[in-house]
Sequence to fold (295 residues):
Amino acid sequence: MHTKGNCCCSFEDYKLTTEWLMNQTSHRPKVAIICGSGLGLLADGASNKQTFRYQDIPNFPISTVPGHDGCLVFGTIEDRSCVFMKGHFHLYEGYTLCQVTFPVRIFKLMGVELVLVTNASGGICPDFKVGDIMIIKDHINLPGFAGQHPLCGPNDERFGIRFPCMSDAYSKDMRSVVVDISTELGCSDFIREGVYCMVSGPNFETIAEARMLWILGCDSVGMSMVPEVTVAKHCGLQVVALSLITNKVSLDYSREEKVNHEEVLEICKMRAELLQKLVTSLISRFNQQQIINTN
Ligand SMILES: O=P(O)(O)O[C@@H]1C[C@H](O)[C@@H](CO)O1
Ligand SMILES: Nc1nc2[nH]cnc2c(=O)[nH]1
Fold:
């Protein structure tokens, strides 16, 4: 890869990877699903699967975090060709934001129209319970405030404009479809809506940090997704994002619980089946043209 300002990938890098993948598969996905920590199981329901390990794909970073399998799976759900990222990339792994978001631009060049993101996060809103699924309605890009932003550096107009609008990053129509689906599936008790804040990690929050985030309007906190969503929105993709609340973030010095990654993965396992049903139904609605291009 070449270095261009803050960006380490050129348009040719993106093109080369896209062409390599398109030459290996006959799938032409319109939907990409980015599976967060421990949520790679979401790909298991697909048929006609074709799997590529990240290390075998030109220019692709590799996953270094437990719970992130590190492979790209093409498959069919409800007659719709999809591509799943089993594992995504994080700043705390030492990747640049250009590497973290590399796959999103590959999806764009492949012809993807909708990116469905799942992740794990800690619940800050005191009403949230472990195992709740938060439909993300907005985010706070905390690393972005400090210049760790995936769109810093020369802007490539082939992907999008210099100053993209982010006030509608998470499609309102799609969010209401998720609410409808959760009612049909009888799981609306677990469904919340809220604001996700990205921190770089890798440590979980101090109590003072958690209190600050709550005052700032954050309902949950995690270490991913915002760069991918920003790049997806920049290049005109629709986005829907679901965050699994895997732990409650402590706002109180008297609380004894200590969060750890194993607990995060355990809760992901517990909710993987429900998330899979939600994701499948969402793809099928997309398939029925109910929510396509209505952003
Ligand atoms: O990769 P995601 O954002 O789903 O997972 C969160 C953030 C860290 O990677 C990990 C910490 O347990 O969970
Ligand atoms: N930053 C952060 N990321 C998480 N991912 C899962 N839980 C948490 C959490 O409590 N804090």
